[in-house]
Amino acid sequence: MSTLTFNGQEYVVQDDENVLDTLLRNKISIPHGCRAGACQACILIAKPDQIPDDCQHGLSNERIQQGYFLSCRCEPEQDMTLRLPNLSGEKHLATIAEKMQLNPKILRLRLHCRLRWRAGQYITLWLNDTTARCYSIASVASLEDFIELHIRIYPKGAVSPQLLNTEIGDELLIQGPYGECVYDNKQSQQSILLIAAGTGLAPLFGVAKDALNHDHQSTIHLLFTVKQASDYYMLDALQQLQADHPQFSYSLASADGPPHETWQQQLQENFTELRGRRVYICGGNDFVSQAKRQCFMQGATRRDIICEEFINFSAAS
Fold first, then answer.
1. From CA 36, how far away is CA 309, in angstroms rounded?
2. CA distances from 302 to 171, 268, 286, 293 (A)
3. Which segments cross the bilayer (predicted)?
């Protein structure tokens, strides 16, 4: 078993534990959020030769050389000496400019912040010094002066109920942006298929608007799927986008709808050949894995499939 040294104290890593698990089990207050390597809230520093190869994904080369790593992804292969980085300079103050519930389960926040972003990227939102969550950006910087987030509300969560109780003018700390789920204007002649589940609509609605703002020449279709029809939101905005742009269309699929209207059936019937098409997939882990597999089987190349997986915080968000 490996031993972690942190603030002069030693902690033994148990079987199947990562660094974050070990520290939290020992009541060490470590910033963390998604626990899946996306939000980068749990970054720690160690000697580079102590860090396994697979726990620095998404970090810059500079950070990797400095010994930064994602503690939630790190299962030690040897003893490690750890310290917290100073990330205060990377957090930005954002002010809530607008707040609206889009349906009983989805909260929309629009934030004003001096930050450069692209639609489809995500930011890490800090509730306090140790608790953070990731949310994707639905707004286009060149069209809108706010960062728009669609937040799934979990009644017993640690973050979303707190955000539901915020007021216009309240200030939040955000970090980022991160991610590559963005429109590539070099592919303006390539047809685009956007497949969104739940709040996966947020980044893909942003990608669609960004593409249309760049006068995308080929077709853009958005397939929006939810567990039940009452979970749909922003349908008026999708309808308006379709009315304003002849190259854009959308379709809906709910798990409680007719069998022939499932997203899988729509893919099979309406997109029999995906070769040459750019495919974006956003939603929960299982959904993304399944949709990615089906799109690949229908001809989409791995290079043309861009995915953004969301973490399920139903028990802890």
1. 10
2. 40, 18, 18, 10
3. none
User: Could you tell me which CATH number the domain at 3-82 has?
Assistant: 3.10.20.30
Q: What is the pLDDT of residue 315?
A: 45
CA atoms within 13 A on the CB side of 201: 24
Q: How many CB atoms lie within 10 A of CB 94?
A: 23
Count of Cβ atoms closer than 10 Å to residue 149 Cβ: 24
Tens of pLDDT, residues 7-50: 999 999 999 899 999 999 998 988 887 777 778 889 999 999 99
* CATH class label, 185-310: alpha beta
- Print burial letters for 111-127: b (CB count within 10 Å at least 16), e (below 16): bebebebbbbbbbbbbb
pLDDT digits (tens, 9 = 90+) for 56-103: 988 889 899 999 999 999 999 999 999 998 876 788 999 999 999 999
Close Cβ partners of 219 (under 8 Å, ≥ 6 residues apart): 191, 192, 247, 248, 249
Q: What is the homologous superfamily of the domain 89-178 according to CATH?
A: Translation factors (2.40.30.10)
Domain segments of the chain as ranges: 3-82, 89-178, 185-310
Nearest-angstrom CA–CA distance, 166 and 199: 20
Q: CA angle at residue 16 from 12 to 18, to 5 degrees?
A: 65
Q: Report residue 304 CA to chain centroid gap.
A: 19
**Residue 267 pLDDT more than 60?**
yes
CB 109 within 8 A of CB 151: yes
Order of all β-strands in the sheet with 305-310? 248-254, 220-226, 192-197, 278-284, 305-310
Give kind and range of the element (H or E) at residue 70.
strand 68-70
312: confidence class by pLDDT, cuts 50, 70, 90: low
CA dist 30 and 20 (Å) reads 8
Using DSSP's 3-state secondary structure scheme, residue 229 falls into: helix
Rg (CA), the chain: 21
User: Across the chain, what does the average pLDDT equal?
Assistant: 92
pTM for the model = 0.82
